[in-house]
Amino acid sequence: MTDGLLRAAVGVPLNAAAALLVAPLFQGAMRRLTAIVQSRRGPPIRQAYFDLLKLLGKEDIESGESGVMQRFAAYLAFACTLALTSLVPMGFPAPLGAGADAVALIYLLTLAGMCTLLAGLAAGSTYSLLGVSREMMAMVALEPLFVVALVVGALHRRSLRLDAVFGGSVYDVGGFPWSGLVMLAVMALSFQAFVQRAPFDIAEAETELMDGPLMEYSGPKLALFKYAQMVRLVVHAALFVAIFAPWGSGLGAPLGWLLFWAKVSLLVLLVALVAATHARYRIDQAIRYFAGLLAAAAVALALAACGH
Predict the structure, then answer these.
(1) According to the model, what pLDDT value does residue 72 have?
(2) DSSP string, 90-155
(3) How far apart (Å, rounded) are the C-alpha atoms in residues 116 and 127?
(4) What is the b/e burial string over 232-251, where b = at least 16 CB atoms within 10 angstroms of the residue's CB?
(5) Per residue in 158-194, is it b (16+ CB within 10 Å) or e — as a string?
(6) Which candidate, 34, 165, 155, places its Cα nearest to that of 89?
(7) What would the pLDDT profile of 125-146 be if each residue is shown by its tens digit?
(8) What is the residue-averaged pLDDT of the chain?
């Protein structure tokens, strides 16, 4: 018990600090790669840090329908994202992995997404409400995919504990891991949508909805939302690696730690490459795409229930 408390007391702040430090770095690297693909010079990699500092130093102007709800949504989004870092391996086992289950992870991921809906509703503008409607449709179609991925792993390990679900549990079957491979394909094809990057940045759509749900935000509140979005990219990438590509995680430090971050970095750069080379989907195109992935996920769940 004492060892577990000590591990959590040390690991939780270290995980949060690691995610907070590397998230703007990844954002800067993605911008730079996008600029290279589009034959532009682009901003320096450290620009994301300067952008956050600039927003945090600006006046906190409230122009929405409910200032209280706007502040609450911004703080809650950032708090949920920080809480997620304690449940996700960051090169080492998750600090609270043995004391939490997949239900808590799903709850926090969903709550973090709902904060964007609260933000748009509190803003109350036409563009914000349109962004909220798109975000809601995307959430309804996307969230079940991640739930199925965790349930497949839980069925194979006969446990909902995160330390059991992580570590390639989707492949843990007696024969060929059909369910795990199907879910790997489903999550790889939907990962761009989970991190809200083109061609699935439909709710923001800067050239169409002018940042959608966050249109009425500025200053520190906008900084919190932007920072939370950056950290969520790191969290989703870490979750993907922990569930579907855990190979090498058992290696000792620092080799295992370096290998983990190398896989996360590769996944982030692939996200940037796809975003730079694909046009944004319409909402109806995205929903049809998600429906196909949901059908494939249902097949994977049936295979997992049959022991495959």
Answers:
(1) 92
(2) SSS--TTTTT-BHHHHHHHHHHHHHHHHHHHHHH--HHHHHHHHHHHHHHHHHHHHHHHHHHHHHH
(3) 13
(4) bbbbbbbbbbbbbbbeebee
(5) eebebbbbbbbbbbbbeeebbbbebbbebbeebbbbb
(6) 165
(7) 777 888 888 888 889 889 999 9
(8) 89
d(CA 216, CA 210): 10
The residue type of 167 is G
Distant-in-sequence, close-in-space partners of 185: CB < 8 Å, separation ≥ 6: 296
| CA–CA distance, 277 with 6 (Å, rounded to integer) | 46
Q: Are 80 and 234 in contact (CB under 8 A)?
A: no
Neighbour count for residue 209 (Cβ, 10 Å): 20
The per-residue DSSP string of 216-266 comes to T--HHHHHHHHHHHHHHHHHHHHHHHHHH--TTTTSPTTHHHHHHHHHHHH
Maximum C-alpha span of the chain:
60
d(CA 288, CA 12) in angstroms, rounded, equals 39
Q: Say if CB 213 and CB 132 are below 8 A apart.
A: yes
Residues linked to residue 110 through DSSP beta bridges, in sequence order: none
pTM: 0.93
Tokens, residue 248: 């090498």
Each residue of 87-100: b (16+ CB within 10 Å) or e? bbbbbbbbbbbebb
pLDDT of residue 208: 60
Residue in 141, 149, 120, 110 with CA at minimum distance from that of residue 232: 110
Measured at the CA of 217, the angle between CA 53 and CA 116, to 5 degrees, comes to 105
Ranges of each domain in the chain: 2-305
Q: Tally the C-alpha atoms within 13 A of residue 2's C-alpha that lie toward its C-beta.
A: 0
